Amino acid sequence: MKSFGFTNYGGPDVIQEFERDIPTPKTNQVLIKVAAFAINPYEGYLRQGQFSNGQPLTAPFYLGSDLVGQIVAVDPSVTDYQVGDWVINHRAKSGYSQYVTASTNKIMRRPLTLPVPIAASLPTTGIAAYNAWYHFANIKPTDQIAIIGVTGGVGSLLAQIALYNHQQVLGIANHRHEKVAHELGVQNFLAYDQLPSDTSWQHQQTVVFNTLLGGHDHGLANQLLAPKSQLICFNDNDIQLTAPAAEKITIHYRGAATDHETFEFWTKYLAERSLQIAIDQVRPATLANVRDAHASLTKPHFGKQVLTWAD
Ligand SMILES: NC(=O)c1ccc[n+]([C@@H]2O[C@H](COP(=O)([O-])OP(=O)(O)OC[C@H]3O[C@@H](n4cnc5c(N)ncnc54)[C@H](OP(=O)(O)O)[C@@H]3O)[C@@H](O)[C@H]2O)c1
């Protein structure tokens, strides 16, 4: 089978195609024939060596966290999934592959009404949004909630979780995405590149999620935050809060919910509602396309990059 990965850190061109054996499922594992995988900013950081922390990744490192596909084999210990089931998988590596083995606590069923590209895009963003809302922020019904980057991967899922919890949302994004924000159901919209001249919107928000790529906030967090508010961040950043008694919380995997808990939430959500995640391109999983999808991560972009394997 084919997998994409790298042996040296660097730009998108370090990504290579590897020929590997199809893995065999172990106890509590299934073998998935991957239909599609999605690209995350995190994988771009890994490729550049930004997360090695002095501990280099073992080469070759096979990339990929998020995928959707069909089960083609199960270990005899698995009783709740069977061959033919469509599943979504979250994993630490090796998702840009034609086949993967996965433990059953790392998969969820894909409702067949959920389009394959959206299913492939759900794991990392859905886990981050779920954790931010339910485990890191301390949300009260009276909170005023703003999401910076509301039409991005994490931001759009956070908005859908907020609406699911009957909270009003002030969505913030580039002015070009106002229509998409309203299609998500966001009630109020602020374009960070076309801010109103009056200042009545400032210092009103008690919980602000900053989901912009790389943690940039265009200087908005301090303009939005009210006293005793929370800023929830998805990347380390040097934002110094100016609102009195405001708290900055950066989400991380330690102390977060298990993938299993998160997938239980999204399974329940999908049984009740449809899900929207902006998709930029869906294209065949070739080396050129994977490199190009990685190159797009550092350019201004909108929507997920999804790569598909031929049947
Ligand atoms: N800590 C965690 O566990 C965790 C998990 C998932 C994600 N993250 C991080 O959260 C952030 C958002 O992830 P995501 O998947 O939602 O990202 P994304 O959808 O690719 O981007 C989010 C938003 O960033 C803006 N953007 C796009 N290209 C940009 C560029 N080149 N420079 C600056 N801003 C740009 C866009 O908003 P506008 O067009 O409105 O500007 C976009 O909607 C990333 O930095 C990611 O690494 C962290």
What does this structure look like?
The protein is of the alpha/beta class and 311 residues long. The protein has two domains: 2-114 and 278-308, Quinone Oxidoreductase, Chain A, domain 1, CATH 3.90.180; 125-250, Rossmann fold, CATH 3.40.50. Helix content is 24%, strand content 28%. It is built from seven helices and 16 strands. It has helices spanning 41-47, 116-136, 153-164, 178-184, 221-224, 259-272, 287-297; strands at 2-6, 16-19, 29-38, 61-62, 66-74, 86-90, 99-103, 107-109, 145-148, 169-173, 188-191, 205-210, 225-233, 247-250, 279-284, 304-308. The strands form three sheets. Strands 3, 5, 6, 7, 8, 15 and 16 form a seven-stranded mixed beta sheet that branches. Helix 2 (116-136) packs across helix 3 and helix 2 packs across helix 6 (259-272). The longest helix is centred in the middle third of the chain and has 21 residues, at 116-136. It is globular. The two termini are 13 Å apart. The structure holds NADP nicotinamide-adenine-dinucleotide phosphate (NAP). NADP nicotinamide-adenine-dinucleotide phosphate binds next to helix 1, helix 2 and helix 3.
